[in-house]
Amino acid sequence: MHLLSDTILYEEVEVQEVKCQGSIKRRLLDLGIIHGAFIKPMLENTSKDMRAYLIKGTLIALRKEEASAIYVQRRG
Amino acid sequence: MLFSKMVEMNHQINELYEEKRNYKIALVGNPNVGKSTVFNALTGMKQHTGNWAGKTVSIATGEYIYDNQKYTMIDLPGTYSLMAHSKEEEVTRDYICFEKYDVCVVVCDSTCLERNLNLVLQTLEITSRVVLCLNLMDEANKKKIEVHVAKLKKRLGIEVVSMSARHQVGFEELKKAIKDTAYKKYEKHPTIVVYDEKLEEILYDMKASISIDTMNQRFFLLKLLDPSIQDARFYEYLEDQGGKLEKAIQKGKLSLQEQKLDLHYEELIVNKINEKAKEIAQECIQFHDDHYLEKDMRLDRILTHKVYGVLIMLCLLSFIFWITISASNVPGQWLSDIFHHIELYTDQGLSLLHVSPWLKDFLTSGVLRTTGWVISVMLPPMAIFFPLFTLLEDFGYLPRIAFNLDRYFHKAKTCGKQALTMCMGFGCNAVGVSGCRIIDSPRERLVAILTNNFVPCNGRFPTLIAIISMFFTGMLLSPWDGIFSTLLLTGVIILGILLTFGVSSWLSKTILKGVPSSFTLELPPYRKPQFGKVILRSIFDRTLFVLGRAISAAIPAGAILWIMANVQIAGIPLLQHASTFLDPIAYVFGLDGVILLAFILGFPANEIVIPIMIMAYMSNGYMIEFEHLSELKALLVANGWTWITAICTMLFSLIHFPCATTCMTIKKETGSWKWTCIAFLLPTIIGLIVCFIVANVARVFM
Ligand SMILES: Nc1nc2c(ncn2[C@@H]2O[C@H](COP(=O)(O)OP(=O)(O)OP(=O)(O)O)[C@@H](O)[C@H]2O)c(=O)[nH]1
Ligand SMILES: [Mg+2]
To answer: How far apart are CA B602 and CA B39, in angstroms?
Structure first.
């Protein structure tokens, strides 16, 4: 398993587990970041601590802290 | 007992069903799917719309008539689910869960229906009277996404309408669907989402033991079981019958714990809903083109580029300033000509009517002239800057600004969405402050509220532009001149933004200590702005609104000033007493008594600061008519202005106490006088310090 924050740009990965608590977890779940969903990092900002991910047809930006709570699996 | 209650309820329902002539329609949906656009189109209201998530932060109501029937529509803030995270989502959650309404219209984005279906499924657990509105169909078509409406209708058992709100497509069908649904009998909706087997068993036991069966019982029981929710209202809603409910809940929670379901309760629920949404989406939606995002991404790669992103942003901002500055002059001149004539004619007219000279003077030089200056100096920059900014907003650029600037907000230990509220501040700081509801963490929300005033609102903007055009243009040759003014204005705005970072960071280290909390930032697809509509609407709705506010503040201020200038104590006008008193204090900060007085009297609305100055100076004996800005400059120079005064006035205009409306909004949003006072003092003190340093350093070098 890898962290979402460690993936490289444009590499589509599959979500395994969301390891955070409270309202942020709930929000990530609501956005469709759940086990089995595909997610792909698309953009990166200046300091690389925020990236925009493509999830279920929408672009959602997350800071590194949040992205590193999401465990993913490389595909193929 | 139970029977009588049921009879009573039945009675109530029949009453609702038959006699009601005013139906209440709630509009919900994910953020940025076009709820307010639908709302505006149906009710003719003017709710804020734009291409980013989180514009609507409080409830708005409007009405429309269809088939001789009145419908009251309620526009709600966008939300991803009925479990609230932030303040604005709480508003929606509370409304949908606890208020009475007849129909709930769930507006969806047809281009990402799967995610939107989550909310539909949750809403269906509360009420069966749901209309699914598939908005943004035009975009779905463009992206070659096919939605099978009939299938969806059958699958969900509700009315489904596909539409394109921005292009006025589908409203007849929507109104009809709403009507049909409103006339429908209240009934329980067939369960669509079936949860974990064990959880369903627990639910079944609970239902059996409380022995009442209301329509949304399932939803409330699920919420009452949720270990992370402690909201008494859920409990109150289901009226406890002799403690049965409480016992049932305790028992249910206990069995949850036994089966170890309580640890992942939320996930258990959300996963099932997500699964169902996915299943339905797969049945009803077809994607004919997988590369539809490519074009958007190409643009995004430029606009959020690691190196050039911020640079492009600054260029874009400067470009807007450049247009504003260069295009404001001519209409400003027209307007002042017009007012010049109005004043002349009024003067003559009043003379003919034999109005007493002091009243005539009061009306023309006091009231009319202030109003005239407010309009001719303030209107053109407002009417140009605001629409341009709104175009960027409609295009979808604001979330990209937030994306680009997140690095700095992160360093300041605050929320990246603060960039969005900061942008709102350019329009109006009061709007920016209430917009801070989109920030989940209370600490970060407070930081954003306290620092919102560091970006100049549409009311202060013209002051900056007027001073720049008077004192810093005409020094260089033609093209360079405009560029110099633009750079100066950009510099002032950047200073405001830097102060926002600096002060936020300082607050996060001192009185609002804390670590940055988590948030997600949606980057919606770019949308072609509706040029004509945006320009018309921002001029007629927003600019005229701000202007109206300015005039309503300017008239009494003009009157007060006129009185102060004409009532004499010891042979000297009151106004002069006040400004002489303030002069030595103001001098230290590079200002003068009149300027300081203008800022103080301008507390109700910042737009009137310059007109107050003009009037005060004129009452000192130097009269000017409505002519060109250069005459205004002559007036200021005759009253001792130098470029240092100009710079310090600009700085103080950028950094001083928020206007009265903003202060009131801050009080409302924070619910505390303490924070309102801090919001008032913080920029004032910083502004004075900055002016003090600039004035004194500049004087040394002069
Ligand atoms: N292309 C297209 N754009 C639309 C349509 N409906 C709305 N929009 C645009 O979508 C954006 C969002 O619309 P709003 O009405 O502000 O959305 P909202 O759901 O009220 O958003 P929040 O209040 O932030 O939750 C605006 O830029 C609208 O112009 C549509 O049918 N087609
Ligand atoms: Mg809205």
So the answer is: 36
B306 CB neighbours in chain A (<8 A) are 44-46, 48
Residue B397 tokens, joined: 């650029």
* For chain B, percent of residues with pLDDT exceeding 70: 94
pLDDT tens-digit profile of B212-263?
667 778 888 888 888 877 777 777 777 666 778 888 888 888 998 888 888 8
Question: Nearest-CA distance from B520 to chain A in Å?
Answer: 5
Give the ligand 1 atom nearest the CA of B31.
25
Q: Provide DSSP, B179-207.
A: HHHHHSPP-PPPP-----HHHHHHHHHHH
Mean pLDDT of chain B: 88
Mean pLDDT along residues B261-269: 85
Residue identifier of the C-alpha nearest atom 4 of ligand 1: B166
Q: Please report residues of A whose CB lies closer than 8 A to that of B267.
A: 29, 34
Res B519 pLDDT > 70? yes
Q: Where are the domains of chain A?
A: 2-74
Per DSSP bridges, beta strands B69-75 and B22-29 are parallel
Q: Is B281 within 8 Å of chain A by CB? A: no
Q: What is the 3-state secondary structure (H, E, C) of B91-151?
A: HHHHHHHHCCCCEEEEEEEHHHHHHHHHHHHHHHHHCCCEEEEEECHHHHHHCCEEECHHH
Q: Which atom of ligand 1 is nearest to the CA of B37?
A: 15
Residues B164-207: tens digit of each pLDDT = 999 999 999 999 999 999 988 777 778 889 998 889 999 888 88
CB contact under 8 A, A29 and B523: no
Between CA B294 and CA B237 the distance in angstroms is: 48
- Which tokens go with B29? 């949906």
The dotted CATH code for B2-183 is 3.40.50.300
Q: What is the pLDDT of residue B130?
A: 95
Residue listed under structure tokens 């450049």: B322
Beta bridge partners, A54, equal A40, A59
pLDDT, tens digit, 9 for 90 and up, residues B387-425: 999 999 999 999 999 999 999 999 999 999 999 999 999
Interface touch B521/A60, C-beta < 8 Å: yes
Rounded to whole angstroms, how far apart are CA atoms A12 and A53? 10
Name the CA radius of gyration of chain B, rounded.
30
Please check the confidence at residue B546 and state whether its pLDDT lies above 90.
Answer: no
Q: In this structure, are residues B551 and B367 in contact, taking their beta carbons and an 8 Å threshold?
A: no
Any ligand 1 atom below 6 A from CB of B55: yes
Whether residue B138 has its Cβ less than 6 Å from ligand 1: yes
Which residues in chain B touch residue A27, judged by CB atoms under 8 angstroms apart?
80, 85, 518, 520
Cβ–Cβ below 8 Å for A56 and B115: yes
- Is the pLDDT at B626 greater than 60? The verdict is no
**Pocket flag, ligand 1, residue B435 (CB < 6 Å):** no
A2-74 topology per CATH: SH3 type barrels. (2.30.30)
Say if residues B303 and B396 touch (Cβ distance below 8 Å).
no
Higher pLDDT among residues A66 and B378, named by residue: A66
Strand partners, A73: A14
First-residue to last-residue Cα distance in chain A: 14
pLDDT in tens, A65-76: 999 999 999 876
The reply to whether residue A58 touches residue B406, judged by beta carbons under 8 angstroms, is no
On whether the CB atoms of residues B60 and B45 are closer than 8 A, the answer is yes
CB of B649 within 6 A of ligand 1: the answer is no
Q: Is B233 helix (H, G, I), strand (E, B) or coil?
A: helix
Ligand 1 lined by B394 (C-beta under 6 Å): yes
Average pLDDT over residues A26-48: 89
